[in-house]
Amino acid sequence: MTHPVPHRPYYKVGTDLFDWDGKSYIVVTDYFSNFPEVGMLQSTSSKTVISYLKTVFARHGVPCELFSDNGPQFSSGEFAVFAKEWGFKHTTPSPTYPKSNGLAESSVKTVKNLLKKSQTNDSFQKSLLIYRSTPLQNGLSPAQMLMGRRIRSNLPVCEDLLTPKGASRIRKSKEGQKEKQAPGDNGHIRSTGTWQQTGQVQEEVAPRSYRVQVDSGLLLRRNRIDLQLQQSQRDTVAQEAGQQDTAGSAEPAGSGPDRADHGLTKVQASPPAAGLSRPKRHVQPPKRLIETC
């Protein structure tokens, strides 16, 4: 039976069970990347197999089609309910021709060879890691085809090869979300449940941990959650300069509606009129949550 080549990872997977050294195992292999998932089962019942498949699907996503043999754990009514609830098509071969599940059978053969050469479970996991990171005939490893990146093993590899595209943008975004304090920031410090002490930040000794000098001259180390700090003079000057630049480039009043720049709306400041309520802030959903095809 010839299976069509999927157009993306985890569109179609094959699974099979096998026994080794008195223990039962299950293999789940992606038809696009040949990436194998291997797990040891306490039993071969439908409930145990379904529980392991749910773990795999939660990690890589639910496939559109799952191909297996006609074993009792796959042909049960419980497995049919599982396929319907999770939204994938369950396909089986002819009862007299199990070779049609060739990819899963080939994965079982590969895993058995790894188990045969491994003395302990730790060495087997290392062998499985190396197999997943070894390039195939197309020059890409199963991990690259499935995850879009190389995975690190105990073999030497250049660090640049392990860095996927877009990593720098993600790093900058995460660093921008972290609120850091600079030396010279002043404010209140929580001590013994109160905020009576005041002091100044001297240095950052660890992530979100700062050395602060209180007014009495004592040096304390506090987490960011125990600090209510004000802006330093450096930040105040930068903020005032930014406001002046914004005011100088803004349009005169009455020239037209406010313009949006890079998704942000410029609002001209005006003194509140007596008897008028404060205008409500317009809330827009984040663009990162809007899916487009």
UniProtKB/TrEMBL annotation:
One of its GO terms (molecular function) is nucleic acid binding. PROSITE patterns: INTEGRASE (PS50994). Residues 5-172 form the Integrase catalytic domain. Pfam families: rve. It comes from the Eukaryota. Residues 173-182 have a biased composition (Basic and acidic residues). One of its GO terms (biological process) is DNA integration. Signal peptide: none annotated. Residues 189-201, 231-247 have a biased composition (Polar residues). Residues 162-208, 231-293 are annotated as: Disordered. This is Integrase catalytic domain-containing protein. It comes from Takifugu rubripes.
